[in-house]
Amino acid sequence: MNDAPRISYASAGVSIEEGDRAVELMKEWVEKARRPEVVGGIGGFAGLFDASALKAYDRPLLATSADGVGTKVQIAQRMDKHDTIGFDLVGMLVDDLVVCGAEPLFMTDYIATGKVVPERIADIVKGIAQACAESGTALLGGETAEHPGLLGVDEYDIAGSTTGVVEADALLGPELVRPGDVVIAMASSGLHSNGYSLVRHVFFAPADQGGAGWSLDRHVPEFGRTLGEELLTPTRLYTLPCLALAKDVEVHAMSHITGGGLAANLARVVPSTVSVRVDRSTWSPQPVFGLVGSLGGVAQEDLDLALNMGVGMVALVAPDAADAAIRLLAEHGVQAWIAGDVADAGVHGDGGTVTLTGAHR
C-alpha cells in the first residue's frame, strides 16, 4: 500500500480558488475601462468587440502592438506597490499605435506569477484599467497564470497586446516627412519603462561592481523623494494628446521614445531623403538621468542609447504648425518644445539618420 500523500493541483502550487477570487476583485476596475463597442464582460474565453463601428471608415487600417515593461516590475515587487505598473504596460502598448495616427480600441493583458495573491493581481489590473480609461482604450480581457517553481511566490511579469484603427488617408509615417519639418519634443515623466537593467545596476550594485549600493528607501535630495518612488514613476500616456495633435495640426510623423533612445527611435520614421538634427541644449532632463550618468560613470552616448533622456514622444510637423502644436499639447497637459529640424539628406548626416548635437542645459 502506498502511504505517500496524494498530490493535487493546489499542493503543486496552483490555486484555482485564488485565481477566481482575483477575477472577482478585478471586475470593478475592468468595468471602468469599457468602451461602448465592448460586448459582454470578463470571464469568457474571448473578449468581444463590436467592429461595426469600422463601417464609418472608408478604408480602416488595423494597427497592433505587443509589449511588456521589462525589469521595472522588480521595483514594484521590492516596494510591494503594484497599482502603477499597469500605466507602464498600457503606455508601452497604446503609444506605439498612436505614432501612426491610430486610435487604440482595446487591449488584453497577461500576468504570470509564482503565486496568485488576489489583492496583488487586482492592484496590477487596477493600474492597467485606469490607464486604459485615461487613453480611451477598452480592457477587453486577459490571462493570469500561476507558475510555481518557475517564478518565486512574490515574482510576476506582465505583458499585453493592443489593437487600434486609423483611416488609410490619415496614416502618419516617413513618406510624409519633408525638409523644413520641425521636431517637436514632448517631455517624459521620467525613466518610463526602458533602461532599467542599466538603472538598477547603477543604483543597486555594490561599489566593487561599479554601482552606488543605494537602497530603495534612500531619500534623494535631487528627487525630493525616495529612490524607489522616483523609479516607480508611471510612464506618461500621450495617446489622447497625440490623437488630438494628429487631428488638428499638420503632423507628418511621430515616434515613441522607448528602448534604443531618442535618435534610434526617431530614425524609424525618417525617410532616406532627409536627415534630422536634434539639439540637446533645448531641454534639461530630469535629475534621475544625470544621476545615472554621474554615479555610474555612464557616457552620454550610452545614456542616449538606453534612456529617453526626458523626451517620451516626438512629432515631426510642418514648420508653420509648430507653435500650434506646442499650444495644443500644453492644453492637454504635455510640455513640448522645438528640439530640432529636418533637412535634405546630407545636411545633418546621412539620409535617414538622426544626429544629436549640443549638451543638455
Automatic annotation (TrEMBL):
It catalyses: 2-formamido-N(1)-(5-O-phospho-beta-D-ribosyl)acetamidine + ATP = 5-amino-1-(5-phospho-beta-D-ribosyl)imidazole + ADP + phosphate + H(+). Residues 178-346 form the PurM-like C-terminal domain. It is found in: Cytoplasm. One of its GO terms (cellular component) is cytosol. One of its GO terms (biological process) is 'de novo' IMP biosynthetic process. CDD domains: PurM (cd02196). SUPFAM superfamilies: PurM C-terminal domain-like, PurM N-terminal domain-like. InterPro entries: PurM-like_C_dom, PurM-like_C_sf, PurM-like_N, PurM-like_N_sf, PurM_cligase. One of its GO terms (molecular function) is ATP binding. Pathway: Purine metabolism; IMP biosynthesis via de novo pathway; 5-amino-1-(5-phospho-D-ribosyl)imidazole from N(2)-formyl-N(1)-(5-phospho-D-ribosyl)glycinamide: step 2/2. It is an enzyme of class 6 (ligase). Pfam families: AIRS (PF00586), AIRS_C (PF02769). This is Phosphoribosylformylglycinamidine cyclo-ligase. It comes from Aeromicrobium yanjiei.
